[in-house]
Amino acid sequence: MAAKKTTKSSSKPKAWAKSMSVKQFEFMREILAAPSPIGLEGAMSYGVLKPAFEKFMPKSWGVHQFKGNAGIVVDTHPGDDERPSVMIVGHADKIRLQVRSIGSDGKIWVNSDSFLPTTLIGHEVKLFTQDLKKPGSYRVIDGGTIEALGAIHFSDPATRAGEKGITKEMLYLELQMHGEKRKEAVEKLGIRPGDPIILNRPIKHGFSKDTFYGAYLDNGLGCFVVAEIARMVAKASLKNLRVMFAIATHEEIGRFGATAMAGELKPDMLIGVDVNHDYEAAPGITAQRMHPQAMGAGFTLTHGSITSDYLNTLIETACLKAGVPMQRDLSGRDTGTDAMAAALAGFDCAATSIGFPIRNMHTISETGHTGDVLAAIHGIETSFRAMDKMNRGQGIKRGDLEGNHVRLDGAKAV
């Protein structure tokens, strides 16, 4: 009797090679849509993420809260300072505009903060202002747009020709006020200098497969990655590694939230999670000879600055073994992310930074790829499990971090 033919079954695609599930995408969208301008991040950290953590975290986990900011840290082993620990940090704060002054014609002059003024014109925004009779109680004013020139007819020839640009001093919020005493009408709404304004464009699926775009990928994406890694760890707990899942604040003005968190909890390792740049598609930077990292090719791992070569090696090794796509990023003096938190807080810690290449950073149309985000989630979760199994199942030790600094005097000649 003839032997039966055996057919080789095709291997299933890895999680990062699949399209993100509808449920995951909606959770990501909810995080990114939370109104959390710098200093007022509670909508994301307490309104969306803390309830999400509480739904899946074991009872033995704890939540650290802070006096000076609305950040949170979800801790797998609260109070266990003997166990080696890693903190992974996303930041909830969004760059915002602020009210500068109110003109007699009802124009609300604004600061551009970390936006290019030219990218803001005509976009819908939300203004958050306090109830004058109830300090601390906020209201939202919708329906305004950011303007500068009003109309092409009022601009000079150089501006029309594109030879001159728009400066930050030209920006104002248009609330369509009309009639007499427009300034007084604006002031009666409770609008005052310092009130925050954020862009109004929740993320949508892009035209190309597995892409998405909208405002504030920076850095709701980092917070989403932190939360999803926590969800995976909760399903199959780690035996030897303490993980602190941190949602930080004030990153956009100096990494102050993560610095406070890290300084208080003092993890042995720290991983900052933030957006990165798609240099391949960035216009007009060919002469800068940037390294060719690209959207859709995997998450990025930073080398240079204060990053730990040993920690990077652990992550690279785990990702190579699992086949998780990863790109090499580089930094000089500063990573520009919350990976700097331990260094800024002034304590010893092995740190690094991961990210996902996006386009149009700090605009209303930031663009990303879900595969890069999923790769970051699975790459770091895989790395944590590899650390947990080191030393014949006893897990990573502080001595591993202290005793495995690279010796270039031992490098082999080529």
Task: Give a structural overview.
The chain has about 425 residues and is α+β, with helices and mostly antiparallel strands. The chain has two domains: about 15-95 and about 215-405, Zn peptidases (Aminopeptidase); about 100-200, Beta Barrel (Elongation Factor Tu (Ef-tu), domain 3). Helices cover about 30% and strands about 25% of the residues. It has helices spanning about 20-35, 40-55, 155-160, 180-190, 215-235, 255-265, 310-320, 340-345, 370-390, 390-395, 400-405, and strands at about 60-65, 70-75, 85-90, 95-100, 110, 125-130, 135-145, 170-175, 195-200, 205, 210-215, 240-250, 270-275, 300-305, 325-330, 350-360, 365-370. The chain has an eight-stranded mixed β-sheet with strand order 1-2-12-3-13-16-14-15, sandwiched between helices. Strand 14 (about 300-305), helix 7 (about 310-320) and strand 15 (about 325-330) form a beta-alpha-beta unit. Helix 1 packs across helix 5 and helix 5 packs across helix 9. The longest helix has 19 residues, at about 215-235. It starts with about 20 loop residues before the first helix and ends in an 11-residue tail after the last helix.
Helix and strand pattern:
HHEEEEEEEHEHEEEHEHEEHEHEEHHH
State the domain count: 2
Let me know the number of strands.
Answer: 17
Separate helix tally: 11
> Uncertain spans, ≥5 residues at pLDDT below 50?
1-9
Cα separation of the termini: 58 Å
Radius of gyration equals 24 Å
Per the CATH scheme, the topology name of the largest domain is: Aminopeptidase
SS content category:
alpha+beta
Helical percentage = 25-40%
Biggest sheet strand line-up: 1-2-12-3-13-16-14-15
